[in-house]
């Protein structure tokens, strides 16, 4: 989708993007080859040509740090089909308090390359391990991670970089008129969880951590299993939402 996108350019909104598509310009190559673009001055077109050529180069290089800042955050989802195989799903559990009130991360779940990794406080939740797992990530997938997971992690682990495109599924769902939390959307898209953790919420995750700290060993296993479902199901939900987002743009190519 990204190579069909023009609203990523400053000064072009979704309405003008649709007009460009309707004029027969469906991708960046078409745009650059065109002698002129309706509604755009020649100077503006030349500037956009240069920007698109640069974006082509950065995508080919998988320069996600550049892409993260060059493309409007609300349009990062358009990179999903390019970087899906190198994406990482991320979900955190916390002690229940925000960072300013002394809250801390208890579990970080990362799912990439069809493998789930659980980093647990007091065991392997260390900045170097988190950096290692995110090093090759070309796209971060979360649910409400823009407002919660990533800001929380940045405050707890300031040495870890999150400069990569971010596909926040909570934002994406609201954009196409779908309301609700992760578990609600899972039910809507028929994404299942095991019976053992079905019905559990973030409050249960806080309770399980406290139980483990009190000596209940099995509580930590259940907490990790809950986080595993939260994390792995993000990829399934991303696959379900992406075509709906694409369709919502009006692009028919």
Layout: helices, strands, pairs:
Layout: H1 14-22, H2 28-33, H3 42-60, H4 64-70, H5 80-83, E1 87-94, E2 105-112, E3 115-120, H6 127-134, E4 139-142, H7 149-156, E5 166-168, H8 169-175, H9 182-188, H10 202-213, H11 217-248
Parallel strand pairs: 1-4, 4-5
Antiparallel strand pairs: 1-2, 2-3
Helix pairs in contact: 8-11, 10-11
Polypeptide structure, described:
The protein is α/β, with parallel strands linked by helices and 253 residues long. The protein has helices at 14-22, 28-33, 42-60, 64-70, 80-83, 127-134, 149-156, 169-175, 182-188, 202-213, 217-248, and strands at residues 87-94, 105-112, 115-120, 139-142, 166-168. The protein has 2 domains: 2-61; 82-245, Nucleotidyltransferase, domain 5 (2-Layer Sandwich). The chain has 11 helices and 5 strands, in the order H-H-H-H-H-E-E-E-H-E-H-E-H-H-H-H. A 5-stranded mixed β-sheet has the order 3-2-1-4-5, with helices on both faces. The model has no long low-confidence stretch (mean pLDDT 95).
Shape: elongated
Relevant CATH superfamily of the largest domain: Ribonuclease H-like superfamily/Ribonuclease H
Question: Structural class of the secondary elements?
Answer: alpha/beta
Q: How far apart lie the N and C ends?
A: 9 Å
Element order, helices and strands?
HHHHHEEEHEHEHHHH
Number of strands: 5
Largest sheet features: 5 strands, mixed
What is the share of helical residues? Answer: 40-55%
Radius of gyration: 20 Å
Q: Order of strands across the biggest sheet?
A: 3-2-1-4-5
CATH topology of the largest domain: Nucleotidyltransferase, domain 5
Strand content: 5-15%
- What's the architecture of the largest domain, going by CATH? 2-Layer Sandwich
Global mean pLDDT? 95
Q: What is the CATH top level name of the largest domain? A: Alpha Beta
Low-confidence stretches: none
């Amino acid at each position: 989708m990204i190579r069909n996108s023009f609203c990523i350019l400053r000064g072009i909104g979704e309405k003008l993007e649709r007009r460009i598509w309707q004029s027969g310009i469906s991708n960046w190559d078409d745009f650059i080859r065109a002698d002129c673009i309706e509604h755009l001055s020649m100077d503006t077109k030349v500037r956009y040509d240069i920007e698109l050529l640069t974006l082509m180069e950065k995508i080919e290089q998988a320069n996600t740090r550049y892409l993260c800042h060059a493309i409007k955050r609300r349009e990062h989802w358009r990179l999903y089909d390019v970087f899906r195989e190198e994406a990482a799903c991320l979900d955190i559990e916390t002690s229940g308090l925000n960072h300013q009130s002394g809250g801390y991360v208890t579990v970080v779940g990362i799912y990439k390359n069809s493998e789930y990794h659980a980093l647990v406080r007091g065991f392997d939740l260390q900045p170097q391990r988190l950096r290692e797992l995110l090093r090759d990530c070309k796209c971060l997938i979360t649910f409400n991670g823009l407002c919660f997971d990533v800001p929380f992690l940045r405050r707890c682990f300031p040495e870890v970089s999150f400069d990569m495109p971010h596909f926040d599924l909570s934002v994406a769902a609201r954009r196409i008129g779908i309301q609700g939390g992760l578990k609600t959307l899972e039910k809507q898209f028929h994404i299942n969880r095991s019976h053992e953790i079905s019905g559990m919420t973030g409050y249960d995750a806080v309770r399980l951590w406290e139980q483990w700290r009190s000596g209940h060993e099995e509580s930590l296993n259940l907490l990790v299993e809950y986080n595993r479902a939260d994390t792995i199901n993000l990829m399934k939900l991303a696959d379900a939402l992406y075509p709906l987002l694409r369709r919502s743009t009006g692009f028919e190519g």
